[in-house]
Amino acid sequence: MRFAPLSMFKTGPARVAACALALTLGLATVSAVAHQGATGIVKERMDTMSEIARDMKALAAMVKSDKVDADAAREIGSRVAEHAKLFPDQFPEGSLSELSEARAEIWTDFDDFQAKSDALATAAVDLAETDPDDLDRSALRQALKAMGQTCKSCHESYRIKKN
């Protein structure tokens, strides 16, 4: 299967939406394989991350299609915020496993990890609290970008990339 190059998108926002969708689809595929054999808190946090990836994919699809469902987008924002608030409790010290993608640095700089979780929660709450009349494609694109940047920041610092 051939995909169109990202350079075909002439505007920056369209490129951001396309990248967010590609990243989300990739994460969903990888997470399905990674969950095999995971148990306990490791599985719980993998499931939480998968749910966030699914929600980000739904938001990216709205941006891409220009069919924004403000109520659904706001509900997704609420759900992502609630998931992000779970992260500090889902990463108790000593919960590394061979199936986990977590880096040990989470526990050596837990305050920063928590701040990154809080940043995602804040960005998601901002989406959830957006007036439905103001939640057009442009506003949703900006919300998705803000949320995606928080995910990226945390993943760069605290996630081991596995094939």
Task: Report the portion of residues in β strands.
Answer: under 5%
- CATH topology (level 3) name: Four Helix Bundle (Hemerythrin (Met), subunit A)
Total number of beta strands: 0
Radius of gyration: 16 Å
Tell me the major beta sheet: none
**Which stretches of 5+ consecutive residues score pLDDT under 50?**
1-9
Helix-strand blueprint:
Elements: H1 12-34, H2 40-65, H3 70-90, H4 105-108, H5 110-128, H6 137-158
Task: Name the features.
163 residues; Four Helix Bundle (Hemerythrin (Met), subunit A); disordered N terminus; 71% helix; 0% strand; mainly alpha
Plain-language structure description:
With about 160 residues, the chain is mostly helical. It has a single domain (about 10-160), classed as Cytochrome c/b562 (Four Helix Bundle (Hemerythrin (Met), subunit A), Up-down Bundle), CATH 1.20.120. Helices cover about 70% and strands about 0% of the residues. The chain has helices spanning about 10-35, 40-65, 70-90, 105-110, 110-130, 135-160. The longest helix has 26 residues, at about 40-65. It starts with 11 loop residues before the first helix and ends in a 5-residue tail after the last helix.
